[in-house]
Amino acid sequence: MTQLKHVAFIGNSLPRRCGIATFTTDLHKAVRSSGSQIDACIVAMNDDRRSYDYPAEVRFNIRDDVLEDYTQAADFLNAQKYDVVSLQHEFGIFGGDAGAHVLALIARLEMPVVTTCHTVLSHPTPAQYNVLRKIVELSSIVVVMAEKARELLHAVYGVPVEKIEVIPHGIPDFPFVDPYLVKGKLGFTAKPVILTCGLLSPNKGIEVVIDAMPLILRSRPDAVYVVLGATHPNLVRQEGEVYRESLVTRARALGVQDNVVFLDQFVDQATLLDFISMSDVYVTPYLNEAQMTSGTLAYSFGLGKAVVSTPYWHARELLADGRGILVPFHDAVAIGAEVSGLLTDAPRRQAMRVRAYSDSRSMTWKRTGERYHGVFVRARRTHRLNVIANLDKRVPARSNAAPPEMQTGHLLAMCDDTGLFQHAIHSIPDRSHGYCIDDNARALLLACALNTAGEEPLSDVLTARLAAFLQHAWNPATRRFRNFMSFSRAWLEESGSEDSHGRTLWALGECARGDISPSRRLWAASLFREALPSAQEFCSPRAWAFSLLGLHAYCSVVPDHEFASRLRLSLADRLIAILASVETENWIWFEEGLAYDNARLSQALLLTGIATDTPAYTKSGLRTLRWLVGQQTGKAGVFRPVGTQGFGDKRTAPRMFDQQPLEATATISACLAAWQADGDPKWKTEALHAFSWFLGHNDLSLPLVDLETGSCHDGLHPDRVNENRGGESVVSYLLSLAEVRLAHRLGDSRAKLSPRAMPGLAKIDQE
């Protein structure tokens, strides 16, 4: 039998005031008592940057809105080598959209995860659905507390039945006590006591019982309704004590204020059990059918109470077959009648008490701890590491996994008869922002990349439109390319940026080398030559790099073009010069800060060094790329693109967000160029590692791509993916996919990694 020694629980923890905190604390104690020498700890969730005076068993705490805390918690648990992690899941206790931050934690864990779902929604929002599906995927076993929850997990979320374990809510092992013996202690001697306890909030339905009190008092004028519990802290922060005051006002208006007692307290377990013990009837008048669990219902049932409840899911199961009484939602008359009937029929009430106590013995925390212990052992025995992405995860054996299929449906939807739209609203092209040469140049690069064996080329019509956009952008008067065009086809500037000009040269160079059409190859070479001289005056390192990438392709088919050859060396020397002026032992880069498309600078030097046989270029490219890859690796090993929030920072570690596809694409290209340069297979692994970012191996454990349409989200925010899927993003993903697919087809060979020139281009006319 697999021995269990170290268990960690993730959830809220006492002294934080909520039901999850009580449950986590009780379960921790129960499991620790279920086996000899079990070391158990709690990783506690903190809300709204609050801190709590936790006991020693809380060894790590997480600020719910700080993503870095989640990854650090994973590092802590992995370093301590816990055997299993028990996650307490409830919507609202984790940060991010629908609690997505917790994915960054459990996706990094090296041990099995057993998730207890405290709520299973029958009609989740898309975000709630996706987050819970991912949590279930990352869990070895999912525990729920009711059969209804098992049914919903299977029917709504598609969870295999064999992965779901039903373990009822635990209860204290408390003796069967006559209420009379406790009433005197609490000041309710000889009074019939109706009790509801727990944190107050509007969904608890307390007002319905208050409305029922006049009917109850007709048969038992001495009855008292005790409402025990502080107002929920979240509600207090939002509106103070408005809800509690409305209940007091309601009781006064009905004339029952002397028979309704409000005790504004969050009591310890011993006091809570005393109050439940002294009650004659326990009422849970909750208003929402979807209440999957209720700790106070379980406790009152376990102490042998006669319970009257609305038919929410937990109550419907627990009180079925006469174990309690169910009444319709919002029905004060029904509650009044049933409570009155129990208070005036002692034998019936006692029989219900005895049956509840007897039937609940399997729910004691001792039995619950033993069942969880068994689940943990089973999870550990059958555990296999969760793999989110289909590629890499730094395991060499997975480097041969087949990449996704090439799908261009979304790309085609983003194009019209002018070219590729810049932006999208969700997946719908956004005409209000028109077009730009940057994205159309990238799309032309993709068209060339798909002109290889094993890929389906883009249509000739679309490729011609992309080429026509570049041609139309050329402004002979300024000797520069325009960049931005409105939807009405009006240029918004006379000259674009240096970077956009350099990127267009890159696309033209690749088109001159790799387009299927001989006529378009000649056109591209001609426009490349006309636009190239402007690059001499550029000051932007990225414009130099983009121009070098274009020169790499162009010079492979026009090797005797003297000006192109001279400018190629000049631009490479400029990169070497700025590297020498900025580089230090700890900052091995060309600039004082990291911005966008960083890896293209290293890639430009690598390819130029290979083509010109200049070791200084190649060595500098490898050195800077090696440093950049380190900067773009998170603590848990995931690829982490340089966050846009840090653009402009000087000599500091990159910010985590926002993360954009462009950075992953640049890194993939540069790493494959490094593999071509020195033959180290680790570079190919790094490229696959960066590509897996698209598939979900990232800080949020959320995929950015739709494998059926080829669309790609515009990036990762701290708590969610960007729902928009614009032109830059789809082309970035498809360019990376084309490169990864080519690398996969080549296997361990890197000789043909660069695209081949089309036949007949070696003698292209320079004039």
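(ticket continues) Second input and output from the same batch:
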Amino acid sequence: MSRTLLNEGWSFRSTVSAFAELGGATSEWADVCLPHDALIGQPRAADAPGGAASGYFPSGAFEYRTTLTPAATDEGKQIFLEFDGVHRDAMVYVNGALAGQHAFGYSRFLIRVDPYLRFGTTNEVRVSCVAHKDSRWYTGAGIYRDVHLIVKNPVHITNDGVRFVTENIESDRALVELVAEVANDGLTTVTADLLTFVTEGGVAEVASASSPITLLPGASGTVRQTLHVAQPALWSPDSPALYEGTVQVRLDARVIDEESVTFGIRRIQVDAQKGLRINGSPVKLRGACVHHDNGPLGAVALAAAEERKVRLLREAGFNAVRSSHNPAGSSFLAACDRLGMMVLDETFDMWTSNKTDFDYATDFAQWWERDIEALVAKDVNHPSVIAYSIGNEIPETGTAFGGVWSRRLAEKIRSLDRTRPITNGINGFVSSLDLVVAGMKDAAPQTSPGEGVNGMMTQAGDMMNQISASEMVTDRTRESFSVLDIAGMNYGDARYLLDRDLFPDRVILGTETFPGQMASNWQIVESNTHVIGDFVWTGWDYLGEAGLGSVTYGDGPAVAQGYPWLAASSGDIDITGTRRPSSFYREIVFGLRTEPYIAVGRPDRVGETPRRTPWSWSDTISSWSWGGFEGSALPVEVYADADEVELILNGVSHGRSPVGKARRLQADFEIPYQPGELLAVAYVGGMEV
């Protein structure tokens, strides 16, 4: 087998049909290198169909083209194009003939192209795709992840046909099970040998095995081998050790196919009494929800950009990410493997009920099973993937038929992989949306005088939590939760302690939480074995849902902001990779930082009343350079795990403030600005720490 990266030699354009071209319409082709986002370079506009959700980017239909010149000697072999992600409704044509299609914009898929190729000459490949009001955030468009060309001999290892399973681990050895699927597309019966070699660090061979397999014409078979690895280096977040498994098919001592797979040796266990364990050691998930875009790059999934994102999240104190709300790309998972970042890989943002006009719900019933198969096939050898999520805020989870779908999806995954637990990001508010909407028609949220929209938004967050903890939601979501190994809860922290009594065996994970509640949530996580972690919305800011976490002043909308707003403004880390004050606060919450952190309110906004959303943080930055504002009293927040904080400006103390008065782990000051050095000193029991 050969596997070749096919990212160069492509061009793209806005789609123009042959009929439109007859009428004089034109669209110029532009050379591009994959991965590529066709949407990020398009002009934004206030009247874009997707509005704030899309970041005011337009909709569009696009097509890509390249050429293939297979050798004459390749005739009779199987040839595939593997796409790691095309958004969306991809149609793949070879020499004008439709070779295959794929509806979902986030799952990996293969298209067999050899029936349509002319060997020994040049062939044209075209890929068409569209993006139009099909998401609640910026999706990008086009071939935004890698493409590979795969060529296989008649006797070969099938696509995604190599799997290493590492459940049997002891202190001095690990039993690694290889499962390999081999096929014979030839015309005669063959007996081949399947050899497996496991190496550590790409050099030292630590285990090997060999098995014969006889295959009739047109048949396939499964080879299982057990490899003994002595003194195994186990994969964990703190020590992400990796092995490489090479599997060869030999016929008459000649290698006719070969696959190499990177994997890790580790075991996952989870229950309500002992919580989550990796290799027997308790682990709490310090989690970040992340979307797939890379900020200024758009949806482009460059391997270096994916690794940078994972590295910066890791450096900020996170040890886990949730791929919100779609399967992560292969490059992202490979980076997580190397850097010790645990992953909840998520399937869908919708099942059978649309959230936007033209989203995946229209295709779900026809495609869900194939997309779950693609998810597991992609993930199964990645040690970083510790759990699957079958959905996000699915309205159907509050109905009996949603229970049916929950069971279908969960059992489908279990039929493919029993080594990883399954969760679902269930929002009790959304699961009861039909009753909530009916109730809201009769009663609008009440606010106290002077609270205005800020109070209304705070109440909205509180209301979600209260509804999630209601007896109504307990009853409506019972079946959907029951099919899961881990009960994922979005904005449902009011259930954490309640369910400890109602459902003693229920393992809970905060799959999506407000940033302002991180300290109280983490306190519950640390104090209760059945609550295994917290995933904030979000760890990294993203394009679209413009203004979700905004802090604004004066009149105007509280959440969705008008053009030219671009990003959600809701991440611990902004779209360029710069940490915001909330990130350092979180690091203190996690117990990973002892040094205080200083955040300063913007002087041009002093005296104005900020308008926040539940996804906002304070409008502060870490700077003491405010020329032109000398003498102005600036609000200063100091984050510290301490009893009190002293603030010293140019050697002069401005007194001590207690920590925790307005927010846990925060002391507040007002300091007249003057240039120089601002120093914070934290005290516990009167002693400097």
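Agent notes: The chain is about 20% helix and 35% strand. The longest strand covers residues 155-169. Closing as not reproducible unless the customer responds.
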